[in-house]
Here is the input.
Amino acid sequence: MLKETVISHAVRIVCAGGVAAALSVASQSAIAQDAQGADAQIQRVEVTGSSIKRIAAEGALPVTILTAEAIRTSGATSVTDLVKKLSSAQGATTESSSVGGSTFGFSGISVHNVGETRTLVLLNGKRLAQFGGQTLTGFAAGFDLNSIPISAIQRVELLTDGASALYGADAIAGVVNFITKHDTTEGDVSIGYSAPKNGAREKRISATKGFGNLEDDGYNVVLTFGHDERDKLGSVDRSFASTGKVQFSANGKRYQKQQFSASPIPANATDDQGQLISPYQKTNGSCPDKTFRVIEPYNDGSGLVDDYCGYDFVKDLEIYPERKRDNFMASGTFKIAGQEVYADVLLSRTKQTSRIAPVPGAIAVDAGTALHNKYLLPIGITGDSTAFYRLFDMGQRTSKDTADFASVVVGTRGVAAGWDYNASYNFSESRVKGSISGYPGAIAVNNLTSSGLLDPFVGPGKQSTAAQEAIKAAAFSGYWDGGTSRLQTINLNASTEVRRLPGGAMMLGVGANINREEFSAKPSPFAQGILADPVKGTLCGGTTGLECDQRFGDAASSQPYSASRTSKGVFGELIAPVLKELELGAALRFDEFSDFGGATTAKASFKWTPAPTLLIRGSVGNGFHAPTVPQVNALQRGYGVTSDKYTCTPALQAIATRLNAQCQPGNRQYDQLAGGNRDLQPEKSKQATIGFRYEPISAITLGADLWHVQIRDSFGQLTEQLVFANPANFPKSWGVNKDVGTGTTYLAFLADNQNLGKSFATGVDIDISGRYRSGIGLFTSQLNATRMLREDVQLERNGQYYSALGNFADLGTVTFRTRGQWTNTLKTGNWANSLTVNFLSGYKDQETTVDVLDASGAVTGQEKIRMEVGFYSTLDWQTVWTPSKSWVFTAGVLNLTDKSPPFVPSTSGANRGQQFGYDDRYYDPRGRTGYLNASYKF
Here is the structure.
């Protein structure tokens, strides 16, 4: 059995693991040296990125290791918060995207902004089912991090290199392996509280207990339970996010940006020229409460002008959603006949509630009706009109999402005939259910209007008593949509020593697996559009003769479907220490999928230690990302609306005429369609890394890894900005959608799945750590940063290349050039104090049309501007007091100076919520957040 000192163990982790946390490394080396002073016996283990059991972290690949202590030092209270603090992680979906979006609360991880669907997440080295709420476009087709309890984690291993040659599909960007607590008899009970100002307050409790010593008793069982809950944070509780009307200065000028909806209360309406006007403003001379005046000249030379009242829906948003999570995990290991039999069970439930403004929609107001004669004829509108209205008296639209996750792993491991083996069966399932309230049916609203009960031209609370009762009766509340994703895997890995080489043992690893993936889309009858009365559940069509209703303001409908596929894979891996200073590695894998065929991937790596203080390593390989089951099999359906508003240009009108449809009136969002594509092929990648670790003296460690990823046949949809800018160039990107409320057939944007062009990404991960013991204690300093050097992406095959590198433009997202953390810790006796600087480089915001103001604040015209968003940094403070071996008390403040997110006028973007004034994807609105944690170990 190999032995090493505690100090050499820490140094080895530094050299091979990337030193994710100086606190962890330092506490395991210098501090442990003083406290223990003894050699520690270690065993061969399997490290992320390799199938071969060997001494931990000795590999040639860039693996970052986060220990439990490093996780505590980060101040993260959940896995979703933890990954936001990783310098190499950016571009993932966050909880805030659920504000006005159908994300079901999904939170993922993306390494180097290559994509969360291209980042493989493992739990104890095992694959997990993708999110049950994933969409047919591939959004959220990853693992939901809410399902893993942070209290159960022993460490996190992050491989920032492709690993398809070992793990198969999806490991293009890297692999994140969450290792949970095993083989311990310790108990731990922890409670915590976090308190931002005026909302998003969080309470949490967790408990862990182990039973039985594996060596002495022949078994070990570890049980973990965690619960946390957080209340809402409203937009009006943050000055930078409280309204859709903002005035600001830039480029030496004064500007104004208005973010609003054209469907207010009282309603706007179209006049006889098709212009959008406000009857209330025409009659009273000003706009009603919670609205502001909007004047939008047409850009077609007609001289027409939309002059109406825009609804400030931003005031109604909850910018950080309410959430509750419960997690339970049980891990058991038993020694039987010299082998180990093990089982892991994970059960989790996440409930999230998000609320946005009351539902908007369109109502037909025909000439000669009572409403027309009362409100429209007196202001000169003689023909039929359409009222754009907000059903304010029905209350906020509320989404209540429940995501259940279950995973069961059973297996056996040990040594047989000289082979270290691990055989297992894994079943995991993600079940998502989304319920809504505050939504009526479009026909129900139309019936209210035609009955004379609903008056769209009066203010909030001014409907008649009969109308109020009718509105209440028309409100749907219940299950809306969801899905189930299931994965079953049989896996066998084994490794052995082949022969002795000058540098040590040549090791061989082999493995095989069989996967069965299943997905079921489960929209409600209301979401399918097969109900005449959504509230009562009355069916439509067929022999009923009843017209089918759909959600007011949303003509989209979904169809239920189920699909599955089987895949098989085999791989081999060889590690050869040809010299004491040089180790070579190679891996080869073949996968075969039942729906698109096979894929072969390979990888080669090296590790060279020319001096005891210097390690140089590198790798080159290829990979692939399989299309998801929904991306291939989903039926075409309505898919929300465009993120931007568009006017009907002549080119757009020509498309609409060809399809016997109408453009949306004025400047409005367009319906969007999407569907699966059975001809979709896998994405294919090539990647390489080269890096070093250098320790000039024992107190300083320097490291850097240069990485490159290139992908072809990437999945995606043509962006709306590209297609609307050149409608005639994309004749297949259009369809039609009928508005049930008005009966009008409108032009719709078709965003179907396609294999698009190529993409290239290059960057460098940097880590620098220092340790110094003084008379007052041990001081450690750790810098982790990622610098992006290149990003080029094609939006269509053989098309132009675009980049999001410091540039929010055509790609709908931002890739930050630099992102990182600098943590400094002083440990004195039983106290540890840490100060962390979190930093993010600036970027150029999306081009946005804004109003130009004069000195008096009057609008003089409009300009298209691109804001320069500056460098952004925050400070986190933490104090840890350990008065005894049993108790640990932690107090800290995140965003110590209460720094607000930078202002941006842009409003669109991939996976962006409805928040305005800042970009919710990249900046946290909670502000200064104090937190307290107490832990008792027994």
Summary: The first strand starts at residue 3 and ends at 4. Residues 1-43 have pLDDT under 50 and may be disordered. The radius of gyration is 29 Å.
